[in-house]
Amino acid sequence: MKLYELAFLISPDVKDEELNGYLEKVDNFIKEEGGVMVDSGRPTRIRLSYPIKSQSQAFLVFAIFQLEAEKIANLDKKMKADDTILRYLLINKKVVKETPRRVSRRYPLPVKEGSEKTKEEKVGLESIDEKLDEILGK
């Protein structure tokens, strides 16, 4: 099963009782097709940047789910058939694996105690002063 994210805009003319029903419809369809709902958001009213089907506001709803790739076409057909859905976006989410941080000279990774390699002993200021006096001939 692949991981998908579905975001859709519902017409603002829909009543509050019916609003939660749209997310339940999507959830039921996914379960009927053998998928699993991972996460979903509550419908939130937003102001649109430009009118969509002569609406300036809409309810934004999103859902993250797992479903077989062959059954996505059925969901796509159902979303297109519903007139109260102004627009929707269905994307295939990729699972991001954590990559190791890139080591930078400016910002090196912190080193744990005990894992640091043995370095030469630090030279004290007195010994540096003595070496400078020898070199300068004082």
Write up what this structure looks like:
By secondary structure, the protein is of the alpha+beta class. It has a domain at 2-93: Ribosomal protein S6/Translation elongation factor EF1B (Alpha-Beta Plaits, 2-Layer Sandwich), CATH 3.30.70.60. It has three helices and five strands. The chain has helices at residues 16-32, 72-81, 125-136; strands at residues 2-10, 36-40, 44-52, 55-67, 85-93. Strands 1, 2, 3, 4 and 5 form a five-stranded antiparallel β-sheet that branches. A hairpin with a 2-residue loop joins strand 3 and strand 4 (55-67). The longest helix is centred in the first third of the chain and has 17 residues, at 16-32. The model has no long low-confidence stretch (mean pLDDT 83).
Give a short account of the largest sheet: 5 strands, antiparallel
Spatial gap, N to C terminus: 79 Å
Radius of gyration: 30 Å
**Structural class by secondary-structure content:** alpha+beta
Total strand segments: 5
Fraction of residues in β-strands? 25-35%
Key traits:
138 residues, alpha+beta, Alpha-Beta Plaits, 5-stranded antiparallel sheet, 3 helices, 5 strands, 28% helix
